[in-house]
Amino acid sequence: MNPLNAYTQLSRSAIVSLGRELAAWKPSQERALFGAQTVLSVVLAVAVAHALHLTNTWWAAISGFAVMQTSFQGSIERSTYRILGTLLGALVGTVVGPLIGDRPWLFIPVIGAIGGFCVYSGNGAVASYAWVLGGITSLLVTYEAHILGSMEKTASFAVLRVAEVLVGTLSCVVVAGLFHVVIEWHRRRRTGDAAPSPAAAAAPPLRELRAARMLLGLQSGLAIAIIAALTYTLNLPGFAQALVTTVAVMVLPAASLTSRDQKPVVQKMVQRVTGCVLAGALGIALLPLMNGKEIPCLIALSCGVWVGCHVQSGSAGASYVGRQFTIAFIMVFVQDHHWSADPLPALMRLEGILIGIVTLAAVMFATANLPFLPSADEASP
């Protein structure tokens, strides 16, 4: 699908789905429990990050949200992938970044190659989330190395990044574990047995995914290289979120990778923008009312996370909008290492997301019909 022709239709669909979800507001027990766990995970992550005086508290808060799943097993698996991906990505960035950071002619293609390889490898992989976090972390650390200029300073930045992710991820594990113990105890008292484990879905053959993986990896690499070049020449703001966007929206479920149709990517892009714009507008409007005070900020943050989780766990087609709304709402209210009514940091992060989307859209439009990539039929055995 031509991305430019799809944006209007998918934007309308995202808004309609969100409206349908909000109109049919039904906080079932399962959705209420998921929302409560996520709110507590985010609040715990913020509290621990503040206690440890971590630099980027919002990274910890987002980690506390991002790894929470509706099942304890799912939360543990996602937490493991996030930690492993972050550790490996930090290591790669610490080693590679200082070697190429002062050479733009080398830095730009290498950082593009890293991002493209991680997107290619993450699509269709069992540990897809680990590839996503590994790619994002390695890109962030590699880019920061070109500013810091030394291995020691780059390593310190990487350690802080890992610490922020660990705080958020472990907060999720603690909260999810406590809820799991209580829920299982209550279920056994009622039924005398544990709930059966869900069966794992079979993944399609990797050969069927080759064409889509090649295209997505190439497009991601080109977009990241362009963003890096613009950052070098124009001091582009919000680089971190532009990178996160470029990687996150290009990794798809295996079922969406059986052809070269890029509608699933365009849909994720549109829903990411929709969720972020709504959360940004609402959050920035609320910031002056909170006046940087801890308790009002925590209450507003908890309400925003709850609403986002409710939409995310719905079935009206707005799940990804809810997820992106929650992430953006956390970005607005959780500042670097203190509570603040200043909207500028949030605006910079949201601007980075929009820059990533615009760059990706341009690259997708230019490369959607590359003749040398195999079609889905050619990729099939």
Kindly list the characteristics that best describe this protein.
381 residues, mainly alpha, 14 helices, 0% strand, globular, disordered C terminus
Q: Topology of this protein?
A:
Layout: H1 3-23, H2 29-51, H3 57-66, H4 72-100, H5 104-122, H6 128-148, H7 151-191, H8 210-234, H9 239-248, H10 263-290, H11 294-312, H12 319-333, H13 344-367, H14 376-379
Helix pairs in contact: 1-10, 2-3, 2-7, 2-11, 3-7, 3-12, 4-6, 4-7, 5-6, 5-8, 6-7, 6-9, 8-9, 8-13, 9-13, 10-11, 10-12, 10-13, 11-12, 12-13
Report on this structure.
The protein is an all-alpha fold and 381 residues long. It has one domain (3-22, 30-190, 208-367). It has 14 helices and no strands. The chain has helices at residues 3-23, 29-51, 57-66, 72-100, 104-122, 128-148, 151-191, 210-234, 239-248, 263-290, 294-312, 319-333, 344-367, 376-379. α3 runs antiparallel to α12, α4 (72-100) runs parallel beside α6 (128-148) and α11 runs antiparallel to α12. The longest helix has 41 residues, at 151-191. It starts with a helix and ends with a helix.
What is the structure about, briefly put?
By secondary structure, this protein is mainly α.
Q: How many strands appear in the DSSP assignment? A: 0
User: How many strands, which pairing sense, and closed or not: the largest β-sheet?
Assistant: none
- Fraction in beta strands: under 5%
What is the residue-averaged pLDDT? 84
Structural class, please?
mainly alpha
Low-confidence stretches: 375-381
What is the subunit arrangement here? single chain
Q: Number of DSSP helices?
A: 14
| Spatial gap, N to C terminus | 24 Å
- What percent of the residues sit in helical stretches (DSSP H or I)? over 70%
Broad shape: globular
Helix-strand pattern: HHHHHHHHHHHHHH
Query: For the CA atoms, what is the radius of gyration?
Result: 20 Å
* Total domain modules: 1
